[in-house]
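Example S7 (structure tokens).
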């Protein structure tokens, strides 16, 4: 495998690590898990996470690209799009252009760039059927960008296990700890890290199918607990972003746990 000196993660709440608590009041997430695996293999690694919840692809480009480039990473993960498909205006052509621009910037500087597609969320929440065409268009844009730049693409949307509810938080938008571990395992496999393999693609053990009544009850509880509050919070979050609250992470040295 290639030796990496500096890994920078760019993206939205998925990259930030929601909702995979680290036990210290923050979040771990797949990017931190991946960084830890690399550090264990190499002995150490410089790592920075630019992930900020709620950002669109264009906002990631505008807010994260320049400071990320300044860190001179030789490994970059870039994942975005969830917030794009949820906005009133959705432009896959612009998304492809922005993703391609970010990928090319790093690849031309010699960095390895990894990205992945977003699974169709319909198996997790029936309401997602309304945005399924947007998700397919988003994935097509990301795939086209990666094919053009040479970025490494993992097509998570092609594997049924990626929408197993047991890999997702109760909000049905974010991966849980087990889901973040699967993503990290998949990325480690793409990097040919020792100990990484293709088992991340395997389905989880079978479970009893829920009854119709329990499914209906679960839908009502989800709407009351997550959907309605999320709609109101989204408006407030957009207002806060317009006021410029964006984090600027520092490089952190991770060392082998051995």
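Recovered sequence:
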């Amino acid at each position: 495998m290639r030796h990496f000196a500096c890994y920078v993660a760019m993206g939205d709440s998925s990259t930030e690590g929601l909702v995979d608590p680290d036990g210290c009041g923050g979040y771990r997430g797949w990017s931190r898990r991946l960084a830890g695996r690399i550090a264990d293999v190499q002995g150490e690694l410089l790592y920075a996470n630019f992930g900020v919840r709620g950002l669109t692809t264009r906002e990631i480009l505008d807010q994260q690209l320049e400071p990320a480039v300044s860190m001179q990473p030789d490994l970059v993960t870039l994942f975005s799009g969830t917030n794009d498909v949820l906005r009133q205006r959705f432009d896959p052509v612009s998304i492809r252009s922005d993703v391609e621009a970010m990928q090319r910037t790093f690849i031309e500087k010699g960095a390895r760039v990894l990205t992945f597609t977003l699974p169709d969320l319909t198996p997790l929440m029936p309401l997602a059927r309304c945005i399924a065409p947007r998700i397919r268009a988003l994935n097509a844009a990301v795939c086209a960008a990666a094919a053009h730049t040479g970025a490494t693409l993992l097509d998570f949307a092609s594997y049924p296990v990626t929408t197993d509810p047991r890999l997702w938080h109760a909000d049905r938008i974010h991966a849980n700890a087990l889901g973040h571990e699967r993503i990290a395992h998949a990325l480690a496999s793409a990097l040919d890290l020792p100990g990484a393999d293709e088992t991340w693609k395997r389905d989880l053990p079978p479970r009893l199918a829920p009854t119709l009544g329990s499914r209906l009850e679960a839908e009502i509880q989800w709407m009351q607990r997550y959907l309605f509050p999320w709609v109101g919070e989204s408006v407030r979050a957009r207002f806060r972003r317009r006021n410029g609250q964006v984090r600027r992470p520092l490089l952190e040295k991770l060392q082998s746990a051995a």
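Notes on this example. The radius of gyration is 18 Å.
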